[in-house]
Amino acid sequence: MLKIFSHYFPTHTLFQLIVDALILFVGVMAAVLLQSSDGIGAWRTVLPSALCFAIAMVVLNGATGFYRPVAGQRLKDVVARILVGVVVSIPVAYAVFSVLPWGEFASEAVEVSVVLVLGLILAVRAFSNRGPMSAVLTRRVLVLGTGAEAESVDRALHDPSLRGLRIIGFMPLGNDEPVAVNADQVFRGRELLDIIDQENVNEIIVAVRERRGGVLPLRELLDCKMRGVKVFDLSSFFERARGQVRIDSLRASWLIYGEGFRQGVTRTVVKRFFDLVASSVLLVLALPVMLVTAVAILLEDGGPIFYRQIRVGQNGRQFKVTKFRSMRTDAEKDGKPKWAIANDDRITRTGRLIRKLRIDELPQLFNVLMGDMSLVGPRPERPYFVDQLTSEIPFYAVRHCVKPGVTGWAQVRYQYGASVDDAVQKLQYDLYYVKNHTLLLDLVVLAETVRVVLTGEGAQ
């Protein structure tokens, strides 16, 4: 994992992006120069255009989730993934062709050749992300501990998105430590430094919560770090690997003294400027969709079109959020707030569609313009549930130190929330966002939101 502006990106994904951009860049240059009689003139004009085209295509494919590994995916699903990539990429490719200044050099044959190269890259990438990671790009991980915490690390590393990390075994920290992991992977009777050397370990994850009383081999861990082996505790591992701050390992002192959780003036101004520009553009682009949605709601269920509800925003301030109405008008006729659940029978047919595509969220762009919300941030919750969750979940109120968002890190990472347990899971992602939010992370969330909508993973 590579840390860029406080956010972690899988190293193998960045490698794939760079390789694909280079292939597209070389492909465009070769196709144009082989067809052109003006070599030097074509080179000067096409080089920046080819670079822009290559970057635009890999960014687009990254936004649609094409670089997300999916282990064991069926052949028909891989083919469907390729078709989605082609359907999205090729029209954009031709649109890019039309605006780049290479028209006099790029014949129709050149454009077809470049599109074929793009299609080949999509096919190769879809199949390569289906299988195991190359050993060259895999980092070998040793886990210190064999208990429940070690088992949670093992479970996390089975996620396809973390296939660049491979557990080579577990080292117990005492003869009486319980074994919750595969016993065949436990190293017994071996010294830590010997395991590091013999198994070519790249990283160590300390999977224990109690560190007092000489439990950890501190001297050996220091020697490992001096040899270039990275050492992570549970908190830093889950933050790096899963993009979440774990509640069960969180302490008030870590929030106070640790890195992140900065709320500076510069960050606030930049975020507000981005929100104003982006939400204005999105409102203009979304206006036809919003008009069609309004008509569909009226035809199916009558008025009202919009649904306004009190939510809790930054610093606990309450405001009214505006959404397209997706439920029946008598959804809470008993007056008691209820969690929205999957396949909720209170949702209308139009509501089910606009929720899946997240069209119901579009009126919240007006909340963004008014300053009550941001484009990206923790989702605003109702006061009734905020009071309940604050009393039951430690540090829940920390999420309110930033503006709530139309979409958020938790929404693209944890797809549905309909209980207190789900709220705990989402809070771990919200805390990661509050700790690390930057303009780059906002752009990542927006790109992930596009993927969620295009792949039909829409959530509440």
From TrEMBL:
InterPro entries in alphabetical order: Bact_transf (IPR003362), EPS_sugar_tfrase (IPR017475), Sugar_tfrase_EpsB_2 (IPR017464)
Compartment(s) of residence: Membrane
Sorted UniProt keywords: Membrane, Transferase, Transmembrane, Transmembrane helix
Topology within the bilayer: Multi-pass membrane protein
Keyword Transferase: yes
UniProt GO MF annotations: phosphotransferase activity, for other substituted phosphate groups
Start and end residues of each Bacterial sugar transferase domain: 271-454
GO cellular component: membrane
Principal cellular location given in the protein's record: membrane
One of the Pfam families matching this protein, by short name: Bac_transf
Transmembrane segments: 12-34, 46-66, 78-97, 109-127, 276-299
Family the entry assigns: Belongs to the bacterial sugar transferase family.
Listed name of the protein: TIGR03013 family PEP-CTERM/XrtA system glycosyltransferase
Species of provenance: Nitrogeniibacter mangrovi
